[in-house]
Records
---
Amino acid sequence: KTCLNTYNYVCFYSRALSHTPTSLHINQTQHCKLLPGLVSSQAQLCRSNLELMQTIIAAAREVKKTCQKTFADMRWNCSSIDIPSLVLFQTGTRESAFVYALSAAAISHTIAQACTSGDLRLCSCGPIPGEIPEPGYRWGGCADNLHYGLVMGSKFSDAPMKMKKAGSHANKLMHLHNSEVGRQALRDALVMKCKCHGVSGSCSIRTCWRGLQDLKDIAIDLKTKYLSATKVVHRPMGTRKQLVPKDIDIRPVRENELVYLQSSPDFCAKNDKLGSVGTQDRQCNKTSIGSDSCDMMCCGRGYNPYTEKLVERCHCKYHWCCYVTCKKCERIVERYVCK
């Protein structure tokens, strides 16, 4: 119900992660009814392209995992995605901006690579670049189909925000803008990848193609944009209302910057109404001076130490030819968690 009332595709991600069976294989149109939170155009896309929905479910799981790894060193570590009310994402915060951008990028990223791997029958490898490669290089391999990923990904991602009952106009503009920032970060992540050929690994010729960087690298780029995100207001500009920077409204919003409408809580204490799970029992770094430091992470409440035994490979020796033997060593390390 919450999903349908907010038309929030981040809600779909949360419900898909928590309610969709891992073993569910979308191979019949009635399976689309088992996916919670879809708006009508998304459900229609599901029925007409069952393989695509399987890919989108995979992207949903990747969003949560990547988000939590990217923000593991900060008070907000994406745990809000699991809060049923999803208040944080309904209020237009900086965190909402990041999740929308990452989600849009993840959907298109997963679809583009599914084309390459042959998991989607309606698409194939991306086109061969028109420019002539340098001497010693040649185009080949199977490029990630970024164009198809962007087209189909935006159809799914932007559908909820284009409905009449999709919440306030300001929120719709914000989410559409941030989703496009995520897709732009994906375009910037298309790089040349090569494989060497030649006698004895001489690499006299390289076969190259256009491939996407890992989603974790794109998430790091979006995290930088999150840290420098611009607070905006919704006000008349010419004949219609637009989002403009709150403190420096002499310029329009830039296409590559994340924007948000409302300030975030400090995430120190648990508060479901504000979308905060708090930092109690979070691990912190006693020697750090950054966001993962015990002072910052624990919000001045202090921390408790504990010890942990680690078993590691050690005293490794290389034997000719060709294997390595190692011993196992134990060491005790001290950890710290927030009170």
---
Amino acid sequence: MNASVSKESLDARDRPARLTVGVVGAGRVGPALAASLRLAGHRPVAVSGVSDASVRRAAALLPDVPLVTPGEVLARAELVLLTVPDDALPGLVEGLAETGAVRPGQLLVHTSGRYGTRVLDPALRAGALPLALHPAMTFTGSSVDVQRLEGCSFGVTAPEELRLAAEALVIEMGGEPEWIAEESRPLYHAALALGANHLVTLVAQSMELLRKAGVGAPDRMLGPLLGAALDNALRSGDAALTGPVARGDAGTVSAHIHELRAHAPQTVAGYLAMARATADRALDHGLLKPELAEDLLGVLSDSNAVNGTNGTHGPDESGPGEKR
């Protein structure tokens, strides 16, 4: 970073931190963050959004804040939140820089988990102060998101001279800063997607299967179970593993695959992948006995389970390890 930008960074850090705030991209994240900054005393002054849903979110979370073009957002705001999809972010930053919309000393914050501050280099060359602040939270696009930011961890990447400014903004939004190195951002984001996004898919599939099994309130049945499983996993890691895979109950797993193929074939591949991963972790941590693992892994093998030979029978058919 050049000397002039370093000086501007220090000036931005030391000045009274009541800022005018703009949002480029009124998706689920931007309006919630701006509303949270408003509670901390900052002043949202402009927001951009195209879709009807974006307009409604902006009106609900940022009432009386004018809806303008992205260029006008940058013209009005000292702190600009770039809250657009990951794939759109590089082009947006380049376009804003090329059109002269970026002003020296302007705090430019993106909320992508994938990128660090390098994606903001075109704006940095125009004199902007780059921050990457990614809230590790799922957003609904409603006012509940502002409440959920309390205690939420943020993946933060920033130049060293902007470290205090980044921490201050996160804390003002009720969050906890967690520093992520530039080169670690993709891995960090993959970890969150694996844990959160895939969890939603698994829960939705589980609820569908319970309905097919005749359960009237699958959400009520799953709530205590999943809450306990999550709490145990966060406290104990792999030691919290339970269930037929960790126990080596090959016959039960075989019956599961048979039923899934019959009633929800689209779930078989995911079940097999997660069961294999669970078996590997259970073996590594001494939870799955090696003498039981062979039959279990046979049931889970691609050539058998996917093609419908070994491992696809029900409880009244051939046993594990035998062909039908």
